Fold each of these.
Amino acid sequence: MSDEIENEDGNELEQDATALLNAELEKLTAENAALKEQALRYAAEVENIKRRAEREGNDARAYGIQKFATSLLNVADVLQRALGSVPADIADPAFKNFVAGIDMTEKELAGAFEKNGVKKINPLKGEKFDPNLHQAVMEQPSAEVEGGGVIMVMQAGYELFGRVIRPAMVAVAAKSAAPVKNGYDSGAAEGEHKVDTQAE
């Protein structure tokens, strides 16, 4: 009889030990899963930081010349204005050489801009006004250009690798519902002169 009691006690102890081991195993398995998840999260975070740092480094390299390029835009404008004011027929050979030198300088500057990712924004007459690339300086009626189109470029714009560093300053054709005569809306009441100044 004492053998039976000892066997029962031994079975109970074995079951208790197994239950304790199973509970401990479950606890360790859950802890292991949590640590794995945490390690994966840290790895993903490190990868994100690495990508962000790489992207910021690329941006810094690409756009690092933006301030320098922006300061040279006025030089490009002055050279273009100088070439635009040259008379058609020049008799003096020294003056002809001087103009040729200015032209070569302007072309070299444009080439340097091109090599470094600086692209000119110079919309054609009639091109649709784009507020992302253009800045409307004025709006006026036009018989030649549809409303909302560019009439003329007052100052060329520039972009650096797709990022606008200076928008093109343009005059835009006015949008009007009625035919326009002498810059006034013919549908307006007498004594009332309206000009549509809204651009899209």
Note: The longest strand covers residues 134-140.
Amino acid sequence: MATNQPAPRQIRLAKDRRSLSLVFPDGAAFDLAAEYLRVFSPSAEVRGHGGGEMMLVLGKERVKILDVQPVGRYAVKLVFDDGHDSGLYDWGLLRELGDRRDEHWNYYLERLSSAGVERDPEGAEPAAPYDVLSSTSTATQADDSSGSSTRD
């Protein structure tokens, strides 16, 4: 994880609260599903305290992001509707989650399969990264225009 990763120029919470869009200064843009962000939370609850394998988080297909809170100039805290709010997503982690989304998601699906668990077929698939052709926003912003197995 890059500790000196520049801040995204834009952070936007989707109206349905099921994804977070990010645009970085170099033009890289990602639309990361709330489920993906939740199961890859940087919290000790998910990542563990000793650096071992991450906890396998289940049942988050329909999780939503309630709030995006800035933390200094280096991270955001995501508050999920399942009560989870203890992970700080720094710019390096968010960039990694965008850049390596397919690799991380496939790893998660493989872990589910190995555990004999299927994702809820009614749950939405995570959003794929997308390319932004142009962006006029230069300010980082959180925008909501709509006015183990861990199941916590």
Note: The two ends are 26 Å apart (CA to CA).
Amino acid sequence: MAMKIRLARGGSKKRPFYRIVAADSRMPRDGRIIEKLGTYNPLLPKDSEERVKMDVERVQYWLSQGAQTTDRVARMLEAAGVVGKTERSNPNKAVPGKKAKERAEEKAAKAAAATEAAAEE
């Protein structure tokens, strides 16, 4: 059975609240779970201790059984010091989009026209 440690959404509309759960990867996001491992409340401030609560021993047990974590849960576990930091690479992160490139070209063209006009005077 392919196990995942992931988030299951709860809460009402526009008021998210998540449970950190161990579940079969073939089950739906909010479907059948095997064990609840903790909670995550994104509405609380980042420095709040109540934001992420988890049973670290049970998480380590499931990891030892071969469970895979989702990216978001892996980041929470890294912050808690349960697993080591992994290097992530997103080479497109700093590349501006198409519209931003067009705006930059227009701005450069206007600046070039302004310097030409100043040079003619």
Note: Strands lie at 3-12, 15-24, 35-40, 52-54, 68-69.
